[in-house]
Amino acid sequence: MSQPVNAVGRMLGVLGDEWTLLIAQQALLAVTRYGDFIARLGISNAVLTGRLAAMTAEGLLERTLYHVGPARYEYVLTPQGRALWPVLASIWEWERRWVPDHAGQLPAMRHTRCAVDFAPLLTCGACTQVVTEKELAASWGPSGSWPRSMPVESTRRRSGAESTRGRAGLFPQTMSILGNRWSFALLVTAFVGATRFNDFAEQLGAPPGSLTDRLQIFTAGGVLEMRGGRYHLTEKGRAFFPVLITALQWAQRWYPNPEGPAVLLRHTLCGNDFKAVLTCDQCTGPLRGADVHEHGRDD
Protein backbone atom coordinates (compact mmCIF):
# COMPACT_ATOMS: atom_id res chain seq x y z
CA MET A 1 0.00 0.00 0.00
CA SER A 2 1.41 3.39 -1.01
CA GLN A 3 2.13 6.00 1.67
CA PRO A 4 0.24 9.31 1.74
CA VAL A 5 1.54 12.37 -0.07
CA ASN A 6 3.73 14.56 2.12
CA ALA A 7 3.92 18.34 2.45
CA VAL A 8 6.00 18.74 -0.71
CA GLY A 9 3.43 16.87 -2.79
CA ARG A 10 0.59 18.89 -1.29
CA MET A 11 2.43 22.11 -2.08
CA LEU A 12 3.10 21.15 -5.70
CA GLY A 13 -0.55 20.26 -6.16
CA VAL A 14 -1.60 23.71 -4.93
CA LEU A 15 1.11 26.06 -6.25
CA GLY A 16 1.71 24.36 -9.58
CA ASP A 17 -0.92 26.56 -11.24
CA GLU A 18 -0.20 30.06 -12.44
CA TRP A 19 -3.71 31.46 -12.02
CA THR A 20 -3.69 30.36 -8.37
CA LEU A 21 -0.45 32.29 -7.79
CA LEU A 22 -1.76 35.36 -9.61
CA ILE A 23 -5.05 35.38 -7.68
CA ALA A 24 -3.12 35.04 -4.41
CA GLN A 25 -0.84 37.89 -5.46
CA GLN A 26 -3.80 40.18 -6.17
CA ALA A 27 -5.47 39.17 -2.91
CA LEU A 28 -2.30 40.18 -1.07
CA LEU A 29 -2.68 43.58 -2.76
CA ALA A 30 -6.16 43.86 -1.14
CA VAL A 31 -8.27 42.68 -4.10
CA THR A 32 -11.23 40.70 -2.73
CA ARG A 33 -14.17 41.01 -5.13
CA TYR A 34 -14.95 38.97 -8.20
CA GLY A 35 -15.21 41.92 -10.59
CA ASP A 36 -11.91 43.35 -9.37
CA PHE A 37 -10.11 40.06 -10.02
CA ILE A 38 -11.57 40.07 -13.54
CA ALA A 39 -10.44 43.64 -14.13
CA ARG A 40 -6.93 43.21 -12.72
CA LEU A 41 -6.16 39.82 -14.24
CA GLY A 42 -8.19 39.71 -17.45
CA ILE A 43 -9.18 36.18 -16.45
CA SER A 44 -12.28 34.51 -17.91
CA ASN A 45 -15.35 34.01 -15.71
CA ALA A 46 -15.14 30.23 -15.97
CA VAL A 47 -11.47 30.07 -14.99
CA LEU A 48 -11.85 32.56 -12.14
CA THR A 49 -14.90 30.77 -10.74
CA GLY A 50 -13.06 27.47 -10.78
CA ARG A 51 -9.91 28.81 -9.18
CA LEU A 52 -11.74 30.72 -6.44
CA ALA A 53 -13.71 27.59 -5.57
CA ALA A 54 -10.53 25.48 -5.49
CA MET A 55 -8.61 28.01 -3.40
CA THR A 56 -11.51 28.27 -0.96
CA ALA A 57 -11.71 24.49 -0.63
CA GLU A 58 -7.95 24.35 -0.08
CA GLY A 59 -8.17 26.91 2.74
CA LEU A 60 -6.33 29.74 0.99
CA LEU A 61 -9.41 31.97 0.69
CA GLU A 62 -12.55 32.53 2.75
CA ARG A 63 -15.79 33.34 0.94
CA THR A 64 -17.80 35.92 2.86
CA LEU A 65 -21.10 37.67 2.14
CA TYR A 66 -20.77 41.44 1.76
CA HIS A 67 -24.08 42.35 0.06
CA VAL A 68 -27.62 41.00 0.46
CA GLY A 69 -30.25 41.14 -2.32
CA PRO A 70 -28.69 40.04 -4.56
CA ALA A 71 -26.15 38.05 -2.57
CA ARG A 72 -22.60 39.05 -3.37
CA TYR A 73 -19.45 37.55 -1.95
CA GLU A 74 -15.85 38.56 -1.55
CA TYR A 75 -12.81 36.35 -1.19
CA VAL A 76 -10.45 37.17 1.65
CA LEU A 77 -7.12 35.48 2.26
CA THR A 78 -6.93 33.18 5.24
CA PRO A 79 -3.77 33.07 7.37
CA GLN A 80 -2.64 30.16 5.18
CA GLY A 81 -3.16 32.24 2.04
CA ARG A 82 -1.46 35.34 3.48
CA ALA A 83 1.53 33.20 4.41
CA LEU A 84 2.26 32.74 0.70
CA TRP A 85 3.74 36.23 0.38
CA PRO A 86 7.42 35.11 0.77
CA VAL A 87 6.94 32.61 -2.07
CA LEU A 88 5.33 35.22 -4.32
CA ALA A 89 7.96 37.86 -3.50
CA SER A 90 10.73 35.38 -4.33
CA ILE A 91 9.06 34.39 -7.60
CA TRP A 92 8.54 38.03 -8.56
CA GLU A 93 12.19 38.91 -7.97
CA TRP A 94 13.47 35.88 -9.91
CA GLU A 95 11.20 36.47 -12.89
CA ARG A 96 11.92 40.22 -12.89
CA ARG A 97 15.68 39.75 -12.83
CA TRP A 98 16.25 36.57 -14.81
CA VAL A 99 13.43 36.10 -17.33
CA PRO A 100 13.62 38.46 -20.32
CA ASP A 101 10.62 37.16 -22.29
CA HIS A 102 7.84 39.03 -20.46
CA ALA A 103 5.39 41.01 -22.57
CA GLY A 104 6.33 44.02 -20.47
CA GLN A 105 8.90 44.66 -17.76
CA LEU A 106 7.70 43.56 -14.36
CA PRO A 107 7.46 46.43 -11.87
CA ALA A 108 9.80 46.64 -8.93
CA MET A 109 8.80 45.80 -5.38
CA ARG A 110 8.78 48.62 -2.85
CA HIS A 111 9.37 48.19 0.88
CA THR A 112 7.09 50.74 2.48
CA ARG A 113 9.04 50.81 5.76
CA CYS A 114 12.12 52.25 4.08
CA ALA A 115 10.25 53.67 1.04
CA VAL A 116 12.64 52.30 -1.59
CA ASP A 117 12.59 49.58 -4.23
CA PHE A 118 14.24 46.42 -2.97
CA ALA A 119 15.19 42.83 -3.63
CA PRO A 120 14.40 40.21 -0.97
CA LEU A 121 17.33 38.43 0.65
CA LEU A 122 17.05 34.91 2.07
CA THR A 123 18.46 34.93 5.60
CA CYS A 124 18.72 32.56 8.55
CA GLY A 125 16.23 33.26 11.31
CA ALA A 126 18.74 32.12 13.95
CA CYS A 127 21.90 34.02 12.97
CA THR A 128 20.45 36.58 10.51
CA GLN A 129 23.13 35.85 7.88
CA VAL A 130 22.29 35.76 4.15
CA VAL A 131 22.08 32.14 3.03
CA THR A 132 22.74 30.39 -0.28
CA GLU A 133 22.37 26.73 -1.18
CA LYS A 134 26.05 26.21 -0.28
CA GLU A 135 25.38 26.89 3.42
CA LEU A 136 22.37 24.59 3.84
CA ALA A 137 22.43 20.86 4.54
CA ALA A 138 19.22 19.11 3.47
CA SER A 139 18.05 15.60 4.27
CA TRP A 140 14.81 13.68 4.15
CA GLY A 141 12.74 13.81 7.30
CA PRO A 142 10.38 11.13 8.67
CA SER A 143 7.75 11.73 5.95
CA GLY A 144 10.24 12.44 3.18
CA SER A 145 10.91 10.57 -0.05
CA TRP A 146 10.48 11.36 -3.73
CA PRO A 147 7.50 9.00 -4.20
CA ARG A 148 5.66 10.74 -1.36
CA SER A 149 6.61 14.20 -2.69
CA MET A 150 4.68 13.86 -5.94
CA PRO A 151 1.17 15.35 -6.11
CA VAL A 152 -1.70 12.87 -6.39
CA GLU A 153 -2.56 14.35 -9.76
CA SER A 154 -0.23 16.02 -12.22
CA THR A 155 -0.22 19.75 -11.65
CA ARG A 156 -2.54 21.56 -14.01
CA ARG A 157 -1.35 23.56 -16.99
CA ARG A 158 -3.25 26.47 -18.44
CA SER A 159 -5.06 25.70 -21.64
CA GLY A 160 -4.52 27.83 -24.72
CA ALA A 161 -7.84 29.57 -24.08
CA GLU A 162 -6.73 30.50 -20.58
CA SER A 163 -3.47 31.98 -21.88
CA THR A 164 -4.94 34.46 -24.33
CA ARG A 165 -6.01 37.18 -21.94
CA GLY A 166 -4.64 39.38 -19.23
CA ARG A 167 -1.66 38.47 -17.08
CA ALA A 168 -1.52 34.74 -17.70
CA GLY A 169 2.07 34.02 -18.60
CA LEU A 170 3.39 36.46 -16.00
CA PHE A 171 5.45 33.70 -14.37
CA PRO A 172 6.37 31.61 -17.44
CA GLN A 173 9.61 30.03 -16.29
CA THR A 174 8.49 29.60 -12.68
CA MET A 175 5.62 27.49 -14.00
CA SER A 176 8.05 25.35 -15.96
CA ILE A 177 9.39 24.35 -12.53
CA LEU A 178 6.45 24.45 -10.10
CA GLY A 179 3.97 23.35 -12.77
CA ASN A 180 5.69 20.04 -13.47
CA ARG A 181 6.37 17.49 -10.76
CA TRP A 182 9.55 16.15 -12.37
CA SER A 183 10.93 19.65 -12.94
CA PHE A 184 10.67 20.54 -9.28
CA ALA A 185 12.19 17.25 -8.19
CA LEU A 186 15.01 17.53 -10.73
CA LEU A 187 15.93 21.05 -9.67
CA VAL A 188 15.98 20.13 -5.99
CA THR A 189 18.20 17.16 -6.84
CA ALA A 190 20.55 19.48 -8.73
CA PHE A 191 20.76 21.72 -5.64
CA VAL A 192 21.83 18.79 -3.48
CA GLY A 193 24.62 17.83 -5.88
CA ALA A 194 23.39 15.61 -8.71
CA THR A 195 25.05 16.38 -12.05
CA ARG A 196 24.90 13.22 -14.19
CA PHE A 197 21.87 11.89 -16.01
CA ASN A 198 22.20 8.57 -14.20
CA ASP A 199 22.33 10.38 -10.83
CA PHE A 200 19.03 12.13 -11.54
CA ALA A 201 17.45 8.91 -12.83
CA GLU A 202 18.56 6.88 -9.82
CA GLN A 203 17.49 9.41 -7.21
CA LEU A 204 14.17 10.38 -8.77
CA GLY A 205 12.98 7.24 -10.49
CA ALA A 206 11.68 9.48 -13.26
CA PRO A 207 10.84 8.00 -16.69
CA PRO A 208 13.90 8.53 -18.97
CA GLY A 209 11.82 10.42 -21.53
CA SER A 210 10.47 12.86 -18.91
CA LEU A 211 13.94 13.35 -17.45
CA THR A 212 15.48 14.04 -20.85
CA ASP A 213 12.72 16.51 -21.67
CA ARG A 214 13.13 18.42 -18.39
CA LEU A 215 16.92 18.57 -18.71
CA GLN A 216 16.59 19.98 -22.22
CA ILE A 217 14.10 22.62 -21.06
CA PHE A 218 16.30 23.68 -18.15
CA THR A 219 19.39 23.84 -20.38
CA ALA A 220 17.58 25.86 -23.06
CA GLY A 221 16.19 28.19 -20.38
CA GLY A 222 19.59 28.82 -18.82
CA VAL A 223 18.80 27.14 -15.50
CA LEU A 224 21.33 24.36 -16.13
CA GLU A 225 24.37 24.19 -18.37
CA MET A 226 26.20 21.16 -19.72
CA ARG A 227 29.93 20.99 -18.98
CA GLY A 228 32.06 17.90 -19.39
CA GLY A 229 29.07 15.62 -19.73
CA ARG A 230 27.49 16.91 -16.50
CA TYR A 231 24.62 19.26 -15.75
CA HIS A 232 25.52 22.22 -13.54
CA LEU A 233 23.33 24.94 -12.06
CA THR A 234 23.89 28.33 -13.63
CA GLU A 235 23.75 31.60 -11.70
CA LYS A 236 20.14 31.89 -12.88
CA GLY A 237 19.39 28.39 -11.61
CA ARG A 238 20.98 29.07 -8.23
CA ALA A 239 18.96 32.28 -7.96
CA PHE A 240 15.76 30.18 -7.89
CA PHE A 241 16.80 28.77 -4.51
CA PRO A 242 14.74 31.23 -2.41
CA VAL A 243 11.58 30.16 -4.26
CA LEU A 244 12.22 26.50 -3.44
CA ILE A 245 12.99 27.23 0.20
CA THR A 246 10.06 29.58 0.87
CA ALA A 247 7.66 27.17 -0.87
CA LEU A 248 9.01 24.27 1.19
CA GLN A 249 8.74 26.25 4.43
CA TRP A 250 5.16 27.26 3.61
CA ALA A 251 4.25 23.66 2.83
CA GLN A 252 5.70 22.22 6.02
CA ARG A 253 3.97 24.83 8.13
CA TRP A 254 0.51 24.35 6.64
CA TYR A 255 0.58 20.66 5.77
CA PRO A 256 2.18 19.11 8.87
CA ASN A 257 2.56 15.34 8.95
CA PRO A 258 2.14 13.35 12.19
CA GLU A 259 5.29 11.41 11.30
CA GLY A 260 7.35 14.58 11.11
CA PRO A 261 8.57 16.90 8.36
CA ALA A 262 9.37 15.81 4.83
CA VAL A 263 12.65 17.73 4.65
CA LEU A 264 15.11 18.73 7.35
CA LEU A 265 17.28 21.81 6.80
CA ARG A 266 20.32 22.89 8.81
CA HIS A 267 22.34 26.08 8.40
CA THR A 268 25.90 24.80 8.41
CA LEU A 269 27.47 28.16 9.35
CA CYS A 270 25.61 28.52 12.65
CA GLY A 271 24.61 24.88 13.18
CA ASN A 272 20.93 25.65 13.81
CA ASP A 273 17.83 24.24 12.17
CA PHE A 274 17.13 26.58 9.29
CA LYS A 275 14.13 28.89 9.27
CA ALA A 276 13.97 31.22 6.28
CA VAL A 277 13.41 34.94 6.84
CA LEU A 278 13.23 37.38 3.93
CA THR A 279 14.91 40.72 4.54
CA CYS A 280 15.18 43.96 2.58
CA ASP A 281 18.48 44.41 0.76
CA GLN A 282 18.24 48.18 1.29
CA CYS A 283 17.48 48.60 4.99
CA THR A 284 18.32 44.99 6.07
CA GLY A 285 15.09 44.83 8.07
CA PRO A 286 12.86 41.74 8.03
CA LEU A 287 10.07 41.93 5.47
CA ARG A 288 6.36 41.60 6.17
CA GLY A 289 3.79 40.89 3.50
CA ALA A 290 1.83 44.04 4.38
CA ASP A 291 4.91 46.18 3.70
CA VAL A 292 5.61 44.90 0.17
CA HIS A 293 3.93 46.54 -2.82
CA GLU A 294 4.31 46.70 -6.58
CA HIS A 295 5.95 49.92 -7.69
CA GLY A 296 6.06 51.36 -11.17
CA ARG A 297 3.25 49.49 -12.92
CA ASP A 298 1.20 51.51 -15.38
CA ASP A 299 -2.32 50.59 -14.28
Can you walk me through this structure?
There is one protein chain. This protein has 299 residues and is an alpha+beta fold. The protein has one domain (7-295): Arc Repressor Mutant, subunit A. 39% of the residues lie in helices and 17% in strands. It has twelve helices and eleven strands. A three-stranded antiparallel beta sheet has the order 4-3-11, covered by helices on one side. A two-stranded antiparallel sheet has the order 1-2. Helix 1 crosses helix 12 (241-254) and helix 6 packs antiparallel against helix 12. The radius of gyration is 19 Å and the shape is globular. The relative contact order is 0.20. The model is unreliable at 154-165 (pLDDT under 50).
What labels would you give this structure?
299 residues, 12 helices, 17% strand, alpha+beta, three-stranded antiparallel β-sheet, Arc Repressor Mutant, subunit A
Number of helices: 12
- Reported by name, the CATH topology is Arc Repressor Mutant, subunit A
- Write down the domain tally: 1
Major sheet summary line: 3 strands, antiparallel
User: Do you know the CATH architecture?
Assistant: Orthogonal Bundle
Domain HTH hxlR-type: 3-103, 168-259
InterPro entries: HTH_HxlR, WH-like_DNA-bd_sf, WH_DNA-bd_sf
Keywords: DNA-binding, Transcription, Transcription regulation
Organism: Mycolicibacterium madagascariense
